[in-house]
């Protein structure tokens, strides 16, 4: 292999560019390895090469070297390389194998195309024991093999199987211990006046004091913004939260993504008095409450932005202007979120709930049109019409589930029949062992015909590892009747079905006229195929 000249230092962290790394000697060696591989038998095991690199330094193994070494390993094992999953500039700590762009596609959609996954070293494949344990479970389920060039990992060897057991046990213990440690840390943190872990509330940021200890300090820009908002809320004509957001964004004191609801949560957070707080789950309303110490007093963790009198007067002003909105539903106010789309701006339609005096009402609005695009009243009527339209078009479609079928048994049976047929055909040739008497010849010909008939009944597709669509006996109508709107909404999102809402203003009428149009992809039947998630958290 030719020597590569690099000017990168170990501290150089720019992204890796694979095209610049192949030398003429590397390409010549690659061509030679491919020619050798072409001589392998058709039934040779199929290998998928997993190549990964986060950043290239003088201390790391380049993807070129990884691929060439793995191709040599594949030839030593008698395997044909069917693909190279090259995920560059990807961290194995942050991104598990099944979520990487190339390797993830092979694992989730192309499992029938390979028998083994080869990688250069364990840390090139995974860096977490839990990820490795999950991959081992997946390989055992689909009868795949994991092979490392520089580690003792091979699921076909006795040592490799022992390693699997050890790693699985360690991963299980690590997961349980991690959960216990995290819960214990948070419980302990709540009782301390020191800032140990977590994200500070808006208005504060972390810094180090003269002793190197992490402390909370006031963010001056945020303090200015909060005090201006308090002054605006206490005016004779108080500013609305939407007006506050507009002014703060224009003054560059907040980002453009700030919303009125987020601004109100910030102004109502008792952490602005310098106290430690925790989430207060109360009927879906997002609030924070003060954490009390062992002396039943609030735990102070920072200097206050507002005094208690200032904070309480601000809350009273916000309460006076508040509309006493209905309590947020835990499951969400909007049904079919992501399915209902505005015709004019293309954004999602969401439910706005208002209460005026003793009368409450709700309507659908979009996120980008001015004033919500006139709003669409009676969301339940729109939901009902959408359900009827979907049932009419897709309700009779069968629920098909993708299942993995292995062809090992069919291949073994096919090989047995072919060998038996060859044996009898040789015996029936002139001078063969079955041609000595009429009886043995007739019996051999009868057996040969029977073997040929058995071979003809074997579907060539059944000898391959493959995905098959299996009908579970239900239609989507019955599936949705059992699961309700939530099940239908999840399937429509997965399939990509959209319902476009168009609202037209009617003269003299407050409510607009609403038109609905169902948009269904042409390949909807293929998309409706349900795929098992092998890498869900419950796997």
TrEMBL record:
Native organism: Streptomyces toyocaensis
One Pfam family matching this protein: Resolvase
MF terms in GO: DNA binding; DNA strand exchange activity
Domain of life: Bacteria
UniProt keyword annotations, A-Z: DNA recombination, DNA-binding
Domain Recombinase intervals: 201-324
Stated name of the protein: Serine recombinase
Stored InterPro entries: DNA_bind_recomb_sf, DNA_bind_recombinase_dom, Resolv_N, Resolvase-like_N_sf, SSR_resolvase, Zn_ribbon_recom_dom
Keyword DNA-binding set for record: yes
SUPFAM superfamilies: Resolvase-like
Keyword DNA-binding belongs to the record: yes
């Amino acid at each position: 292999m030719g020597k590569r000249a690099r000017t990168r230092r170990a501290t150089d962290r720019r992204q890796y560019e694979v095209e610049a790394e192949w030398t003429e000697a590397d390409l010549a060696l690659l061509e030679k390895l491919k020619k050798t591989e072409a001589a392998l038998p058709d039934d040779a095991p199929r290998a998928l090469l997993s190549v990964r690199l986060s950043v290239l330094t003088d201390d790391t193994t380049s993807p070129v070297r990884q691929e060439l070494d793995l191709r040599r390993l594949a030839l030593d094992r008698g395997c044909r390389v069917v693909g190279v999953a090259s995920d560059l500039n990807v961290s194995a700590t942050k991104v598990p194998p099944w979520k990487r762009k190339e390797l993830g596609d092979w694992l989730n959609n192309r499992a029938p195309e390979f028998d083994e996954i080869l990688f250069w070293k364990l840390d090139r494949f995974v860096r977490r024991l839990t990820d490795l344990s999950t991959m081992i479970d997946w390989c055992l389920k689909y009868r795949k093999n994991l092979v490392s060039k520089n580690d003792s990992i091979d699921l076909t060897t006795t040592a490799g199987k022992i390693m699997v057991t050890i790693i699985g046990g360690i991963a299980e213990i690590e997961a349980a211990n991690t959960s216990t440690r995290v819960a214990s840390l948070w419980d302990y943190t709540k009782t301390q006046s020191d800032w140990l872990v977590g994200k500070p509330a808006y208005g504060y940021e972390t810094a180090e004091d003269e002793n190197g200890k992490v402390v909370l300090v006031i963010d001056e820009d945020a303090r200015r913004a909060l005090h201006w908002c308090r002054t605006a809320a206490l005016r004779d004509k108080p500013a609305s939260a939407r007006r506050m957001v507009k002014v703060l964004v224009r003054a560059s004191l907040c980002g453009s993504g700030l919303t009125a609801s987020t601004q109100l949560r910030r102004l109502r957070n008792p952490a602005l008095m310098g106290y430690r707080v925790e989430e207060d789950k109360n009927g879906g309303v997002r609030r924070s409450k003060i954490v009390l110490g062992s002396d039943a007093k609030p735990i102070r963790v920072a200097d206050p932005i507002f005094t208690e009198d200032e904070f309480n007067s601000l809350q009273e002003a916000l309460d006076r202007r508040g509309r006493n909105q209905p309590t947020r539903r835990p499951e969400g106010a909007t049904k079919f979120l992501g399915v209902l789309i505005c015709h004019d701006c293309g954004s999602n339609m969401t439910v706005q709930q208002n209460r005026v005096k003793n009368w409450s009402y709700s309507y659908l609005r979009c996120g980008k049109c001015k004033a919500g695009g006139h709003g669409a009243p009676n969301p339940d009527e729109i939901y009902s019409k959408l359900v009827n339209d979907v049932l009419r078009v897709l309700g009779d479609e069968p629920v098909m589930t993708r299942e993995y079928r292995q062809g090992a048994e069919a291949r073994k049976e096919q090989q047995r029949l072919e060998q038996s047929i060859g044996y009898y055909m040789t015996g029936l040739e002139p001078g063969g062992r079955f041609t000595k008497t009429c009886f043995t010849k007739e019996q051999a010909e009868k057996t040969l015909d029977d073997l040929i008939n058995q071979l003809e009944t074997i579907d060539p597709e059944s000898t391959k590892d493959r995905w098959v669509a299996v009908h579970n006996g239900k239609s989507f109508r019955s599936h949705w009747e059992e699961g309700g709107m939530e099940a239908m909404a999840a399937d429509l999102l997965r399939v990509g079905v959209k319902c476009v809402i168009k609202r037209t203003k009617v003269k003299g009428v407050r409510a607009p006229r609403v038109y609905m149009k169902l948009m269904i992809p042409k390949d909807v039947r293929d998309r409706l195929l349900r795929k098992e998630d092998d890498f869900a958290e419950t796997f």
